[in-house]
Design goal:
The chain is built from 3 helices and no strands. By secondary structure, it is mainly α. The chain has one domain.
Length: about 80
Amino acid sequence: MPKLQTSHGPSPHFAASEWERASSCPVEDIAQAYLSSTQGDAGIALRCAITDALSDLMEAERRARENSRLISRGFVRSAPADR
C-alpha cells in the first residue's frame, strides 16, 4: 500500500496557529481512516465519506420529523376538551 500524505504543510492562507488547530482536529483522522479503508484511493474515500454523511443526515432528519410528530400529538392530547 502506498504511503499517504494527508497534509502538504501550511497553506499561505493559514497562519501558523490556524494550521496547528486544523491539523489537530479529527478531520485528518477521519480522512486517514477513509483513505486506509479504500487502500489509498482518494476518489473512493471521498465517495464513501459523502455517502456516510448523507446517510447520517437523512437519519437525523427522519428522527427530527418523528420527534416533531410526537410533540405535536402530545400537545393535541393535552389540549382541553371544549366539546
